[in-house]
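On to our target:
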Amino acid sequence: MDSSAESPVADDAQHLAPESTVVMAKYDLNAPEPRTRTLDSVTGISKKGLPSGTVGVMGALVIGLSVCAPAYTLTAAVGPAAAEVGYQTPAIFLMGFIPMLLVALGYRALNSAMPDSGTSFTWATRAFGPWVGWMAGWGLIAATVLVLSNLAGIAVEFLFQSISIIADNPAIAEISDNKFINILVCLCFMAVATFISYRGMTSTKIFQYITVIFQMAIMVWFIVAMFVGAGDPANEAGRMPELSWFNPLEVDSFSAFAAGIAVSIFVYWGWDTVLTMGEETKPSKGRLSTESKAAMILVFILVVLYVGTAAATVAYAGLGDTGTGLNNPSIAENVFAALAHPVMGPAAILLSLAILVSAMASINSTAISPARTLLAMSHYGALPPAIKKIHPKYKSPYVALLLSSVVASVFYAIMRFISEDVLWDTITALGMMVCFYYGITALASPWYFRRTAFKEGFGAVMSKFVFPGLGGILLLIVFVQTTVDSMDPAFGSGSNVGGIGLVGIIGVVVLGLGVVLMILQSRSTPGFFRGEVLAKADAESDTSAMPVFDDGLGS
């Protein structure tokens, strides 16, 4: 069977390697021969030159924790969440887990059928076609650019705070308020993190082990200390946790609920980075793939940690609008900076360092997701071909890494000048982007498996069709509601441009830019947008055999 006639990618591969080897397999992305790349003659799915068999379950789990960055995530998210839902912050973090769990089931099913570093982009393209798939990929890239800029901002603040504690000079912490110094240090953080990711997944994994163990240990200490402090009679704001805090029905309005969910989605966001490593993980011995096992374990750890931290923080700090109260706007975008010394005393420096290394490590590991999505989009002709270059020694998508880091740095510099509360606003806008592309990806599962799930039994119907479908619908509803509400100039931090909420402007401009770039790219490489590279299909019509070609990207 001559597959080159049916796929431009196959044609390129065959042109680069006339004496290609043919192997018949089903999405065999762990092919033992490193000089070949799988390429499906019908779907067009193929390997992209990433090194295989380098990351196990523990390594993927550590990288996933590093991307989610619990210490950084919580200090940035607890304040905005409490501002929306008050004492129900633990409930909203728990509710945020539900759509994430439903989405996780869809991700697992899609990843098992189509393990590809493009994840949302590839899966949505296969299920809904190239136009929807392109926007799903854009949503993932946009969300990551937003969070990279926010990560760098948090790292800068905690760098100067840590130095001020060590030097016993509070004035040093205020240096981060200087916009030019702030941006310069931010660029340095981005450069270092990009270099580490550029060296490839193995060096990334080693770096993450050290930082994750440190921040998790300090976070457990901090949570216990807050619960103890909440019961201290000297702490007038302290309250013991109540069952009502875990009841989402206590939230005042659906708008507040939707805004709170968008923030809570942010705290879980990043777990799917583990699944983008599907082409680099070691072969699994069980039914689930290595990356799927790591993703399931990761989500469980995050739920316990986040709900516990939310309850402890609300119990200790209360909802006052002064001091360490969670409704104090001056601490909302960086709550733990204000709580560190009251809670931990002389050990506050450890919390500052934990959040600093959490943000630094997450800048590094978060870059994995957009770089590999950019790689996949370029590889399949949805973006310019220069982006898909793989470093010959380190096997990292270095052009895509550089591109995502540069765009994130520029975005941060611009936002630092137009928003007084840049961290708060980017967190809220990020939540909107995550709801957008997660929602599309989740719905790809029931659509792709719509003809086969009902033939496989009740379990397949629920895990591939019902649950992911519900998760996708919930997230898209939250996305629409939050987008409408964010146009209000009082939304989020209250920053606005011309009387329109800055968060709403960010969301509309980012998605609008995606549409413009998509239209321009469709004129440059129309083959992808005509479905000639990644064919639209479902699980029943999918091919069960494919020839393997050398795609010319190196071993």
Q: What stands out?
A: The two ends are 25 Å apart (CA to CA).
